[in-house]
Amino acid sequence: MIDQIPSTATFGTGTGAQTASIVGMNVAVAFSDQQVVSFYSTAGVKRVAGATSATISYVDGPANTLYFSTALPTDVVITDYVVVNGATYGTGASVLGIKAWDVNSNSGTIAGLNRASYPGRLSTPTINLNGAAITPGIAQRAEVLLGRALGPDADSIKSGIWYGPPEQAFAQSNLMYNVQIVNAQEVKGDKTMDMARKYFSDTFGGRKYHKSWTAINNRMDLLVLDN
Asked: Nearest 5°: phi and psi at 163?
């Protein structure tokens, strides 16, 4: 799976390179021009009505829109999964990503194991901000959860890195701007100071922040790579 069509997405039609379109994807930049994709329902049923695949003519990353030079299968609907063409979607037939592993639950299965048989061991603690912006204290809240899960003396805790989209790196930058102090005596000339910085911060809470343009834009994951 590359992305799931959001419930808020809309479908369009046209001609040529815009024969079809999906407006409002989560991470359109995860796709590439001329890529061939297939569609599956949330129940794992492949969409084959009228066509078994579709060719992306071009990707509009800023608008999170996919344009197709071919028609979509006529039974494609919102919430369907967009999958690499030729992949076999389904349990045991896919490479699981972060969203599959980092789940706060003791139900369901992961890697062939039943989570209910290992309560807490296969569940990832989460901090739900309900859409609110991150604050510096989030890093310490995560540290508390890490210590409870792995033990405060576990060497693997030191290897944890943050993974997330540039939107979260932007939110981290705002934390700095809110407390920025300017010494006006050091301002020379008759131009105002540039209060912004060219790049995002490389760290959050003292840990490396790895930003990815294909990461989901409303979450950050703390990955302990040694564990």
From this structure: -130, 130
